Amino acid sequence: MKYRTILLFGAPGAGKGTQGRILGMVPNLYHCACGDVFRNLSVDNELGRVFLEYSSRGELVPDEPTVQLWRENIEAHTRTGRFNPERDTLVLDGIPRNAHQAEMLRDTLDVLAIFYFTCPDINKLVARLQRRALHDNRLDDANLEVIRNRLETYERETKPVLEFYGSSLVKTIDATQTPVNVLRDILRVLANLT
Ligand code: AMP
To answer: Residues near ligand 1 with C-beta < 6 Å?
Structure first.
């Protein structure tokens, strides 16, 4: 059985995390951010160390351990009843992060829509990431060099995921708006989907 899925898609700093956390409070939506799954690993975990190594450079963790960790996480949450695939729609942030991951998850995800958060102003993204670094203690957002690498990685590796799924699923959301207005635009589309 495939998971009914909505993807939150867009550059780092576009506001996916903020909206994902809000959507995760709506009954029958289950929010999962792949970056959070990695950050919850302990530092004495082997993959936790690999994650630190890659994320501190602004690079993606290799696909196989990433998808495996994500699967284990979602299966554990299914066993404990936090996620119920029969009832809930997954709201995914941060995965799939490249076309190969999308291919690996082809038989797992039934993607209903992709919310594509657009923010053409790179300086705005950088400023948001730097603010977040202070609040959330995120090493990967503290350093300008790493931020630039994260944005380049997004352009080069993550953007092709849009082509993988095709334009008919893509719902463009103007991420330069206030969070309330971004949420309004998402809910308008969601109300007709779920
Ligand atoms: P995020 O919180 O989504 O910005 O993710 C932070 C970091 O975690 C990324 O820069 C990557 O190093 C790693 N990461 C998160 N999700 C993935 C993924 N699906 N594939 C590879 N690396 C990931």
So the answer is: 12, 34-35, 38, 54-55, 59-61, 66, 94-95, 97, 101, 140, 150
